[in-house]
Structure formats: structure tokens, C-alpha cells
Specification:
Elements: H1 3-15, H2 19-30, H3 36-48, H4 52-68, H5 72-88, H6 92-106, H7 132-145, H8 167-185, H9 213-221, E1 241-245, E2 249-255, E3 265-268, E4 272-279, E5 285-291, E6 310-313, E7 317-323, E8 338-344, E9 347-356, H10 369-383, H11 391-397, H12 424-434, H13 439-449, H14 452-464, H15 474-477
Helix pairs in contact: 1-2, 1-3, 2-3, 3-4, 3-5, 4-5, 5-6, 5-8, 6-8, 7-8, 7-13, 10-11, 10-13, 10-14
Length: 495
């Protein structure tokens, strides 16, 4: 087939999340033309397969080719893809800087400005000075006022209401900024990840030769042969991970058979755990890094007592036990699949657990279902102010200091507990109140301070997208039904 056909099929594979097929087809097409859209599609596929350095190279080259063709939307996408790659590589200051490059392109500024914006936000030692509060304030000003005249970051820029075509791209980059700066804020003050080493125009390299896992297997061992043996596992397939948490400890079971207890070295870091060497499903022994923010929501203040963290090597797995500095349940980045009640010293504790072999892609525009549910409840409250509020609606619609609990007491279920029956609804509500305010509070404020048109847009986008998209732009939402946009790693199913 022609390289155009291969490229189109490759982009379709990206949309279908068939990453290996996408890389194979796009790599063939790129040999004929370094099309920036094809490079960006391959970069996204490589990110999903955790091949971050290769994804960064594709995003850098995509910016150059898009710049040469004067394609602003593709330049915006290239800067955003650079940010995603740097975030995944743990270079958070670089990721935030690339987000700003993308946001300024969305505002209509030149792709390459006379003064690089990074010079305004680095200190004399090259450390990045922006904080997550700066990013949240920028997003709030944009959402509430539709302009950035008072922004300390973007300066005197045109309003996004004048650029409706790029407003979603701006919001996506803004969300990515929060992710980068939240992670950076938990690093030591002198951590290298706080230094900015990027520039608006990256160094240009030749097109990298990238192969899919299937192509590598065929090249090294010939065509696949029919066999009755177990199918070979790709070398980059990560070990399975199962997570549990109580109010004091977070535990991880990492599936790994035959780990050498004498050779294994475990390093407990502020936001990750490094194990080297670990046996992968393919049988290969190499380093494995457990990213804690793939399991815990960004709003959680993750702090462990490293001196009290332990690990245990078992025949088929390695168990990590991380002691929390401050007791409490942390919100997860994905709704747990199970919740069990564990007795301890006569008291009740809730333990949550779920399994995942790949981290959630928090770099896309989708919002978590929990935050969208919060926005939906806020919208319902504004649409029907006379309706009777339940406890969760009060939590969203009013400040906590003013909120009361009008719900009747929950049913008293039969129990053998010496302390008598428990009102589990009230206990769950009390635990919710103990959580620190997160991004969902930010969206609550957006709705509360928004115009009726913005509130209508939020209601329509959330309802029609089945809880996967939230927008305040009525001009964009009113054009038709909002499409369902599930997070990476998930798929839409008809029920």
C-alpha cells in the first residue's frame, strides 16, 4: 500500500489504541515523508508503551516540520507532546515550560518569540520558579473572565473567547501544567528535575528508526511460527501491581517470579520506589520504578516515612509496605475495584485495593469521574435551587464551614458489635470531609462564578459525554452532541 494509506491506517490505530500497529504503520509512512501529524501520532503511541525518549524525539522533530509548514495547530500539539514526554521522564520543570509554550501558541503569539518565556520564570541558578498555585490561578482567571489581562504568567494576551478553535488545547495544556507542578512541588529544592533545560525550539535530530515490538520480533527471529507453547511476552511488558491502603500504610504486591533476594536493591524515593533488578514477565531482569502518582490522585499529599518503609521478597512477588507520615486515606487516581473492612484494635478501618499493570495517562484532557460527578452535583444545585440538598450536594455547593447535614440517619443494620449499630453513610461522609480540597473544588468555583451560559455548557457537555468531558464554552458545545472521550487505557461499552 502507499505511504499515505499506511499513515491513515496508522492514525486510525492510534485512535483505536492499538499502539503496536500504529507504530509499525506510521514508521513505514515516515520513511517517505516527515509529516508532523504522523510524528505526533507515533509519539502518542510511544508514550503509551512507556518509550518516553523516543516519544520526545518524535515530538521535537514534529515541531520543526510543523514550523516549516506554518501549521500552528500542529506546533501546539508538538509542544504539548513534548510536555507529556518530559512529565513521564520525571523532568517536571521542562514539562511545565513546554506547556506554557503550547498555551502561548493557543493565544495567538508567535511560535518563536524574541525573548524566551522561560527566562522570566527561572532564578539565577536555573531553577523553575512557577508553582501549582500559579497554574491554578491562571486557569481560574481564564475560566471566569475569559481573558488573561491580570495573569502574572501570560501577560497581556488576547482572550481565549476570541480564539474558540484552540480553547480545548489551552485547557488541556493548563491541566498538564497542574500535573507537572504538583509533582515538582514534592521534590527537594535542589532536585535536578526543578531545572529548565529546554528551549522553545528544540535541537533538530534526524528521524529516528523506530520499530514496533512485533517488527523487532520478526526481524530477529523470522516470521512468527505456530507453536503449542505459551506466547512470548513482550520485553517491555511491566509486572502486575496490586495496591492496598489503610489509614497508616500503603502496600504494593508486584508480581515477579524468581527474584534474587540477595541481589535486589530497593530505594524508597519521595514519589516512587526503585527496585533493581526485578524479574519482568518476559523473564528479563532489569530495573523497575513504581510511580506512586499512577495510583494516588495528584491532590493527595503523598509523604512516607522512608525509615519505616519495608519490602519482602516472596517466590512469586515482591511486597512493599510504605508507612504514611500522616494517617489518613488518600484519594486514588482510579476508582478502586474493591473495598474491604478490616478490624484493628476494636476499631474499623477501610482498606481499598485495585490492580493495574500500566499507569493511567493523566496527561489527556479527560477529567476523573469523581471530579465530574462533583461538577454534575453543583450544576444540579444551580438549576434547581429549591431542591432538597443531600450531604454530597452541600459539600459541593457551599463552603465546608457553612455546610450542614440535612440527611436523615442511615438505617441501623443488624450487628453483633459491642458498640451498637453503625451509620455507615455518616462515617463515609465524615471521611470525605477529612480530605484536603483538590481540583474538584476548583471546578466547583468555576461553576459557581460562571455565567448561565457557562453553566449550561457544563451541564450539556458532562451529560452528553457520559461523564468524560467538562466544558464551559457554550459556543463550542452548542454545535452538536458532545462526544464520549474515555481516558487512555479504557474503552466505551454499551450497557
Amino acid at each position: 500500500m502507499s505511504h499515505i494509506t499506511e499513515a491513515n491506517k496508522g492514525l486510525e490505530a492510534v485512535e483505536a489504541r492499538d499502539w503496536d500497529k500504529a507504530i509499525s504503520l506510521l514508521s513505514k509512512a515516515l520513511k517517505s515523508s516527515e509529516n508532523p501529524a504522523w510524528l505526533l501520532g507515533r509519539s502518542k503511541a510511544l508514550i503509551s508503551l512507556k518509550r518516553y525518549e523516543e516519544a520526545l524525539d518524535d515530538a521535537n522533530l514534529a515541531f520543526h516540520t510543523a514550523f516549516e509548514r506554518n501549521k500552528r495547530p500542529l506546533m501546539m500539539e508538538a509542544q504539548y507532546r513534548r510536555a507529556v514526554a518530559y512529565f513521564r521522564l520525571g523532568r517536571f520543570a521542562n514539562g511545565d515550560c513546554c506547556c506554557i509554550y503550547a498555551m502561548r501558541l493557543c493565544k495567538g503569539l508567535p511560535a518563536i518569540e524574541k525573548v524566551d518565556i522561560k527566562s522570566l520564570h527561572t532564578d539565577e541558578n536555573g531553577f523553575w520558579t512557577q508553582t501549582v498555585e500559579d497554574a491554578q490561578l491562571e486557569a481560574k482567571l481564564e475560566a471566569n473572565k475569559g481573558n488573561a489581562e491580570d495573569s502574572s504568567l501570560l501577560g497581556q494576551l488576547p482572550s481565549m473567547q476570541e480564539q474558540p478553535a484552540h480553547i480545548q488545547d489551552w485547557r488541556r495544556a493548563s491541566t498538564m501544567r497542574v500535573q507537572c507542578l504538583t509533582a515538582m512541588g514534592r521534590l527537594p529544592a535542589d532536585d535536578p528535575a526543578r531545572k529548565v533545560t529546554v528551549s522553545v525550539k528544540p535541537e533538530r535530530k534526524e528521524l529516528a528508526s523506530v520499530q514496533s515490538e512485533r517488527d523487532v520480533a520478526i526481524t530477529s527471529g523470522g516470521a512468527p511460527k505456530m507453536t503449542t507453547q505459551k506466547t512470548a511476552v513482550a520485553s517491555n511488558t511491566p509486572p502486575g501491581v496490586q495496591m492496598y491502603q489503610s489509614s497508616t500504610v500503603m502496600s504494593f504486591d508486584i508480581t515477579s517470579k524468581g527474584v534474587n533476594k540477595e541481589k535486589l536493591k530497593v530505594e524508597f524515593r519521595p514519589d516512587s520506589v526503585q527496585l533493581n533488578p526485578l524479574v519482568y514477565p518476559s523473564g528479563e531482569e532489569k530495573e523497575f520504578v513504581l510511580d506512586l502518582y499512577s495510583y494516588v490522585a495528584p491532590s493527595a499529599a503523598v509523604e512516607f516515612d522512608s525509615s519505616a518503609c519495608t519490602f519482602e521478597v516472596r517466590p512469586n512477588k515482591v511486597t512493599l509496605s510504605l508507612k504514611k507520615k500522616t494517617p489518613g486515606m488518600w484519594p486514588l487516581s482510579k476508582t478502586p475495584v474493591s473495598a474491604v473492612e478490616k478490624p484493628k484494635d476494636g476499631k474499623k478501618e477501610y482498606a481499598t485495593s485495585f490492580s493495574r499493570t500500566t499507569p493511567i495517562d493523566v496527561t489527556e484532557t479527560n477529567l476523573s469521574s469523581r471530579r465530574l460527578r462533583a461538577a454534575e452535583k453543583t450544576a444540579t444545585e444551580a438549576a434547581d435551587a429549591d431542591a432538597k440538598l443531600d450531604a454530597s450536594a452541600q459539600k459541593i455547593g457551599k463552603p465546608q464551614a457553612e455546610a450542614t447535614d440535612p440527611r436523615p440517619s442511615g438505617p441501623a443494620y443488624p450487628t453483633s458489635s459491642r458498640s451498637g449499630p453503625k451509620n455507615w453513610d455518616k462515617i463515609a461522609a465524615d471521611e470525605e470531609k477529612d480530605e484536603e480540597p483538590g481540583v474538584h473544588d476548583f471546578f466547583q468555583k468555576i461553576f459557581k462564578n460562571g455565567t448561565p451560559e457557562q453553566q449550561r455548557a457544563m451541564m450539556k457537555s458532562y451529560t452528553e459525554s457520559n461523564g468524560t468531558t467538562l466544558s464551559t464554552d457554550w459556543d463550542d458545545v452548542s454545535k452538536g452532541k458532545v462526544k464520549i472521550n474515555p481516558p487512555d487505557g479504557t474503552e466505551v461499552k454499551e450497557w
